[in-house]
Structure prediction request, 134 residues.
Amino acid sequence: MAITTKPGRNVFAAMRQGALGRCPNCQKGKLFSGFLTVCDTCNVCGENYSHHRADDAPPYFTIFIVGHLVVSLVIWAEVTFRPELWIHMVIWIPLTIAMSLAFLRPIKGAIVALQWANYMHGFDPDSEPEIPAE
Ligand SMILES: [Zn+2]
Prediction:
Protein backbone atom coordinates (compact mmCIF):
# COMPACT_ATOMS: atom_id res chain seq x y z
CA MET A 1 0.00 0.00 0.00
CA ALA A 2 1.47 3.32 -1.08
CA ILE A 3 1.35 6.09 1.51
CA THR A 4 0.49 9.46 0.01
CA THR A 5 1.34 12.80 1.58
CA LYS A 6 -1.86 14.53 2.59
CA PRO A 7 -2.07 18.30 2.98
CA GLY A 8 -2.86 19.51 6.51
CA ARG A 9 -6.40 20.73 7.07
CA ASN A 10 -7.43 23.27 9.70
CA VAL A 11 -9.83 21.32 11.90
CA PHE A 12 -11.50 24.30 13.61
CA ALA A 13 -11.97 26.25 10.39
CA ALA A 14 -13.47 23.14 8.78
CA MET A 15 -15.80 22.54 11.76
CA ARG A 16 -16.94 26.17 11.60
CA GLN A 17 -17.83 25.80 7.91
CA GLY A 18 -19.56 22.50 8.62
CA ALA A 19 -21.56 24.06 11.46
CA LEU A 20 -22.69 26.76 9.01
CA GLY A 21 -23.82 24.03 6.59
CA ARG A 22 -21.10 24.78 4.04
CA CYS A 23 -18.56 22.51 2.41
CA PRO A 24 -15.37 22.57 4.53
CA ASN A 25 -13.26 22.08 1.39
CA CYS A 26 -14.40 25.07 -0.73
CA GLN A 27 -16.48 27.01 1.88
CA LYS A 28 -19.06 27.70 -0.84
CA GLY A 29 -21.01 24.52 -1.60
CA LYS A 30 -23.80 23.04 0.48
CA LEU A 31 -23.05 20.28 2.98
CA PHE A 32 -26.70 19.29 3.49
CA SER A 33 -29.36 18.34 0.96
CA GLY A 34 -32.06 18.11 3.65
CA PHE A 35 -32.42 19.04 7.30
CA LEU A 36 -29.93 16.34 8.37
CA THR A 37 -29.15 14.62 5.06
CA VAL A 38 -25.54 15.16 4.04
CA CYS A 39 -24.94 15.63 0.29
CA ASP A 40 -23.03 12.80 -1.38
CA THR A 41 -20.82 15.38 -3.10
CA CYS A 42 -20.33 19.14 -2.85
CA ASN A 43 -22.32 20.97 -5.54
CA VAL A 44 -19.43 23.40 -6.12
CA CYS A 45 -16.10 21.54 -5.74
CA GLY A 46 -17.30 17.94 -5.99
CA GLU A 47 -15.75 16.82 -2.67
CA ASN A 48 -17.16 13.40 -1.77
CA TYR A 49 -19.04 13.39 1.55
CA SER A 50 -20.59 9.95 1.20
CA HIS A 51 -17.81 8.62 3.48
CA HIS A 52 -18.97 10.47 6.58
CA ARG A 53 -19.82 8.39 9.64
CA ALA A 54 -21.45 10.91 11.97
CA ASP A 55 -23.76 8.16 13.25
CA ASP A 56 -24.94 8.83 16.84
CA ALA A 57 -22.46 11.58 17.64
CA PRO A 58 -24.67 14.58 16.67
CA PRO A 59 -27.65 13.53 18.83
CA TYR A 60 -25.28 12.56 21.65
CA PHE A 61 -23.64 16.00 21.74
CA THR A 62 -27.01 17.72 21.26
CA ILE A 63 -28.52 15.86 24.23
CA PHE A 64 -25.40 16.58 26.30
CA ILE A 65 -25.48 20.34 25.60
CA VAL A 66 -29.25 20.89 25.68
CA GLY A 67 -29.67 18.71 28.76
CA HIS A 68 -27.07 20.62 30.74
CA LEU A 69 -28.51 23.99 29.72
CA VAL A 70 -32.17 23.13 30.31
CA VAL A 71 -31.65 21.27 33.60
CA SER A 72 -29.55 24.18 34.89
CA LEU A 73 -32.32 26.61 33.95
CA VAL A 74 -35.04 24.39 35.48
CA ILE A 75 -33.17 24.18 38.77
CA TRP A 76 -32.47 27.91 38.78
CA ALA A 77 -36.15 28.72 38.03
CA GLU A 78 -37.39 26.28 40.67
CA VAL A 79 -35.09 27.63 43.36
CA THR A 80 -35.67 31.27 42.44
CA PHE A 81 -39.40 31.42 41.57
CA ARG A 82 -40.97 28.11 42.69
CA PRO A 83 -43.42 28.15 39.76
CA GLU A 84 -46.34 25.72 39.37
CA LEU A 85 -45.59 22.43 37.60
CA TRP A 86 -47.65 23.41 34.53
CA ILE A 87 -45.53 26.53 34.11
CA HIS A 88 -42.38 24.39 34.09
CA MET A 89 -43.93 22.15 31.42
CA VAL A 90 -45.10 25.06 29.25
CA ILE A 91 -41.63 26.61 29.29
CA TRP A 92 -39.13 23.76 29.32
CA ILE A 93 -40.68 21.20 26.95
CA PRO A 94 -40.93 23.60 23.97
CA LEU A 95 -37.53 25.10 24.82
CA THR A 96 -35.94 21.64 24.88
CA ILE A 97 -37.48 20.73 21.51
CA ALA A 98 -36.52 24.07 19.94
CA MET A 99 -32.94 23.96 21.24
CA SER A 100 -32.51 20.35 20.09
CA LEU A 101 -33.69 21.21 16.57
CA ALA A 102 -31.48 24.31 16.54
CA PHE A 103 -28.33 22.51 17.70
CA LEU A 104 -28.59 19.19 15.84
CA ARG A 105 -27.80 20.33 12.30
CA PRO A 106 -24.81 22.58 13.14
CA ILE A 107 -23.37 19.86 15.36
CA LYS A 108 -23.77 17.25 12.61
CA GLY A 109 -22.12 19.59 10.09
CA ALA A 110 -19.22 20.20 12.47
CA ILE A 111 -18.73 16.46 13.04
CA VAL A 112 -18.78 15.64 9.31
CA ALA A 113 -16.26 18.45 8.76
CA LEU A 114 -14.13 17.14 11.65
CA GLN A 115 -14.01 13.73 9.98
CA TRP A 116 -13.15 15.35 6.66
CA ALA A 117 -10.39 17.54 8.17
CA ASN A 118 -8.78 14.57 9.94
CA TYR A 119 -9.04 12.23 6.91
CA MET A 120 -11.17 9.86 8.95
CA HIS A 121 -12.97 6.85 7.48
CA GLY A 122 -13.28 7.06 3.69
CA PHE A 123 -11.97 10.63 3.61
CA ASP A 124 -8.46 9.13 3.83
CA PRO A 125 -7.19 8.49 0.28
CA ASP A 126 -4.97 5.70 1.72
CA SER A 127 -7.87 3.85 3.29
CA GLU A 128 -9.09 0.55 1.99
CA PRO A 129 -12.21 0.77 -0.21
CA GLU A 130 -15.42 0.29 1.72
CA ILE A 131 -17.29 -2.97 1.42
CA PRO A 132 -20.90 -2.09 0.56
CA ALA A 133 -23.49 -3.20 3.11
CA GLU A 134 -25.72 -6.01 1.93
ZN1 LIG B 1 -17.10 22.16 -1.84
Summary: The pocket of zinc ion is lined by residues 23, 25-26, 29, 42, 44-45, 47 (CB under 6 Å). The radius of gyration is 19 Å. Helices lie at 11-19, 57-81, 85-117.
